[in-house]
Amino acid sequence: MYINAASTISHQPTFQNAGFSKLIEPLENSSELISPNYKEYIDAGLLRRMSKILRMSVAAAKDCLKQAEIEQPGAIIVGTGLGCLQDTEKFLNTFLSVEGLLPPTSFIQSTHNTIAGQISLSIGNHGYNMTHTQNTLSFEHALIDTSLLLSEGRDNIVAGAADEHIPFLEEAAEKLNLPSKNNLTSGASFFVLSKEKSDRSLARLKDVRTIGLVQDIDTEIDSFLSDNFLNVSEVDLILYSDLSPRVESVANKYFNEHYHADSKMINYTKLSGLYPTNSAFAMHYGIDRIQQHPELKKVLVLNGLNKINLGLTLIESLET
Amino acid sequence: MAVRITGLGLISAIGLTVAENLYSLENGKSGIAPVKYLDSERDFLVGEVKCSNAELSDHLGIKAQPISRTSLLGLTAAREAWGNNRYTNELRTGIISATSVGGMDTTEQFYQDYLDKNDPDYAVLRCHDSGNTTERIAAELGISGYINTLSTACSSGANAIMLGARLIEQGKLDRVLVGGTDALTNFTINGFRSLMIYDDRWCRPFDESRTGLNLGEGAAFLLLENDKSIRFSGNSTICCLSGWANAADAYHQTASSPEGTGATMAIQNAIDVSGLSALDISYVNAHGTGTKNNDLSESTAMINVFGDNIPDFSSTKPFTGHTLAAAGAIEAVFSVLAIQKGLIFPNLNYKTPIAETGLVPIMELQKDQPVLAVLSNSFGFGGNNSSLVFSVHR
């Protein structure tokens, strides 16, 4: 499948900024979400009620459609690890502390499918509409669903992922002894994926795989690469998540046998910050790198953010 | 299209197994009653599974805590559907579950303690996210690889079944457990009350006097297999999933369009995928929540598709309550039972037709019926509409 548009709202200057991969540095502790002028994408009345995750997602999805010059996509598919946290927290606070009649807005907007639902509402789309929520693999599952749909004859699919930060997450992480080296952040990345290559195509999404409750990481990487007729030395760039120690040691050992230059491996979590679907940021980053560096042919996104799950995504330049 | 269904598992307010559920359906026994197991301030009418978490854990032999009620219910149904099947490297096995609340049953207890500064147990947050409920079920069953969770509100269960069928059709998996699970929570009860669609009396789907739904809880799973998997397992085919479709209503955040736009598309497309005609549908297991809005919109959609030839139809939610993400899966098992046993289930609590549409559901259990194809509808808020068609295995 071909990636015909890409749009990301994050803590980095990613939005409508082709070439961002050349500019960005690992995030500082004080980083904040860089929001576009949402009013350019969302009706002011709706915007007032929308949480961060809804704003980011609707704006990024609409930006993608504009880039691809498509009015109606064949489907809308969203991945989210933790869903609409801001409204979930708000409704928990409301019903646990308010007596009597409760305002329903935060309940309505707390469900995971609000993201894909709001995108469909904002453009009046009646196509296939789906929400995947499989922890750190939610985005990869959205991509797999997209590839199924393209084989079934649908085309020009909006697929993406989003997660939002709320301050409570830091508190929970601390109490659960999960101190992260990285900032907990928000981000939304959306793409238009199509069956055929066009003038607008940015790159090709060659393959994507998820392995839940993974046992043998290097065997899984081996089999993914061999199913794509690749030796590991043929991969030009590896984008890896901030790997858990177990995954990191396996991955490092695995790749160090083939790589000797650190520049070929980039930790994308340091760039995006930490959120469950930041592999979607990595895919956009990989696409942008391919645009900037014609010598890059094959980019592998290695998502081991959660030690029990492995996501593998292979992106190729159009010249491959 | 036709994907074989070879295993069923079900837990709901009307029984802890498929057989117990069937017995209640045949005998008109509703599971909806004042709240008993959930720690709730008022006696809402709910379809609770008649077991405490301790009883469920004990029954399953689960030691590792914390675990959400959503996972416990899901695991009970998934184990029944999985039966004595063995794991093998020869077959690509997956699991797709659906949930709308995930671990909210434990999170809301945590959050109450958190607000009260009453020594909240942060450890339960590990089972909050929806994906965790499925990972937990997969781990207990020894399934790894393709493990996925869908969350599209009330259509989630139907979507999980559809996605499993598509993965098998495209040769990505050889067999897959598909279904959904949701525990009753104060979060959802209060949510539907805030929308003013929670009925304090028995829900009355398709009745003119209907004023809302009663929430329920439960889980159901089905085992789907391709031919290669059948050769290995030797399982017999109960019936087939032959049609499926998903469409967005794109009308309103919570309400369905009065013209039933998305619902009509889902029903029509699912029948088209099955290769059957509308006249071949023997029975419709309706979404039929009992809200003013859904039942009118769904009735209109049925008229749009079936015209004057409306098949026998009923909503089984007066038995189970509305089980949200589990509903599509629970009602899929009911649809399979309708085919397997030649039954059409009654729509309890119905008296008067809806003035605008005049449709009359089946009110008494119909036995010894030639049920060859069943349509099951699941329409969610957020405009997510899905329909499935089940048919006899030929």
Automatic annotation (TrEMBL), chain A:
Database matches in Pfam families: Ketoacyl-synt_2
Domain (Beta-ketoacyl synthase-like N-terminal): residue spans on this chain: 45-167
SUPFAM superfamilies in the record: Thiolase-like (SSF53901)
Signal peptide start-end: none
InterPro entries documented for this protein: Ketoacyl_synth_N, Thiolase-like
One Gene Ontology term of the molecular function aspect: acyltransferase activity
Name recorded for this polypeptide: Beta-ketoacyl synthase, N-terminal domain
Organism of origin: Dyadobacter koreensis
Automatic annotation (TrEMBL), chain B:
Molecular function (Gene Ontology), one example: 3-oxoacyl-[acyl-carrier-protein] synthase activity
Record family assignment: Belongs to the thiolase-like superfamily. Beta-ketoacyl-ACP synthases family.
Pfam families membership: ketoacyl-synt, Ketoacyl-synt_C
InterPro entries linked to this entry: Beta-ketoacyl_synthase, Ketoacyl_synth_AS, Ketoacyl_synth_C, Ketoacyl_synth_N, PKS_Beta-ketoAc_synthase_dom, Thiolase-like
Keywords: Transferase
Gene Ontology CC entries for this record: cytosol
Source taxonomy: Bacteria, Pseudomonadati, Bacteroidota, Cytophagia, Cytophagales
Gene3D superfamilies, alphabetized: 3.40.47.10
GO BP annotation list: fatty acid biosynthetic process
DNA repair in keyword set: no
Every Ketosynthase family 3 (KS3) domain range: 1-392
PROSITE patterns assigned: KS3_1, KS3_2
Keyword Lipid metabolism: no
The protein, known as: 3-oxoacyl-[acyl-carrier-protein] synthase-1
